[in-house]
Amino acid sequence: MAKDQELVDRLDRAKLPQHVAIIMDGNGRWAKAKGLPRVAGHRAGVKKVREVVRTSQEIGIKILTLYAFSRENWKRPRREVDVLMRLLQEFLRRECPNMNKNGVKLRAIGRLKELPAGVQRVLENTIKSTMDNKGLLLNLALNYGGRSEIVDAVRDLIKDVQKGVRKVEEVDEETFQEYLYTAGLPDPDLLIRTSGEYRISNFLLYQLSYSEIWVTPVYWPDFGRELFLEALFDYQKRERRFGGV
Ligand code: FPP
């Protein structure tokens, strides 16, 4: 722990990513490697969600976006989907008091209306209960797809043009961003992906344009504070040019 604190102190505060996004992959493979059912991997994954939220809070990261459930994930066996939804509900219910204690504000992105009613309810309650908190913004991507986000944005934008709220000529990148689920949030500075795949997997397609990407072969349930710090140190070594020189 002492060595760990030294590591945190060595981070360059001026170069901290404001927004970190994570693709938490490898729960299933972690479980399989241990001869356990896939859902055991998800259960172990929730613990790491807590650890990474705590660490982000402590370090002073402003926004943490976690890919918790994609639109494609509905294709999994019914039982696995049910367990994931239950874990999510439990996580929100259990963590709500902690979020309030630690100033964490919850937000969610995705087609939330298609989530089971129970999940929607606890999500709405937690978002409402934490809305005035000023610390870390924990942004959960749920029933999320990057392409559907863009389609939904286009639909809403067209509706506004039809209503006369917007003029076609005034639509630019800045106005378009206001129609994305992430409206008002800066783009992720750093994308972390666990379990070694070099893919975006339909995550934040519009927002990741200039994000730094860090991939570890480690499965999500084995990810934690130490590797998170490693990713942050690596990020601080990068030179970001945003297409300039
Ligand atoms: C990927 O592992 C992980 C997921 C599809 C879900 C991530 C969910 C959690 C960590 C738990 C619930 C989340 C919260 C916020 C409480 P995988 O199953 O695709 O692994 P595999 O690629 O090895 O099969």
Report on the structure:
The protein is α/β, with parallel strands linked by helices and 245 residues long. It has one domain: 3-Layer(aba) Sandwich (Undecaprenyl pyrophosphate synthetase). It contains eight helices and six strands, in the order αβααβαβαβααββα. The protein has helices spanning 2-10, 27-33, 38-59, 78-102, 117-130, 146-163, 173-177, 225-237; strands at 19-23, 63-70, 105-109, 137-144, 190-193, 212-215. A six-stranded parallel β-sheet has the order 3-4-2-1-5-6, sandwiched between helices. Helix 5 links the parallel strand 3 and strand 4. Helix 2 crosses helix 3 and helix 4 (78-102) packs parallel to helix 5 (117-130). The mean pLDDT is 96. The chain binds farnesyl diphosphate (FPP). Residues 24-29, 42, 45-46, 49, 66, 68, 73, 84, 87-88, 91, 140, 220 line the site of farnesyl diphosphate.
Order of helices and strands: HEHHEHEHEHHEEH
CATH class wording: Alpha Beta
- What is the typical, i.e. mean, pLDDT? 96
- Backbone structural class: alpha/beta
Give the N-to-C terminal Cα separation.
40 Å
Low-confidence stretches: none
Within CATH, the superfamily carries the name Decaprenyl diphosphate synthase-like
Domains (count)? 1
Small molecules in complex: farnesyl diphosphate
Q: Outline, from the CA principal axes?
A: globular
Strand content: 5-15%
Number of strands: 6
CATH architecture: 3-Layer(aba) Sandwich
CATH topology: Undecaprenyl pyrophosphate synthetase
What characterizes the major β-sheet?
6 strands, parallel
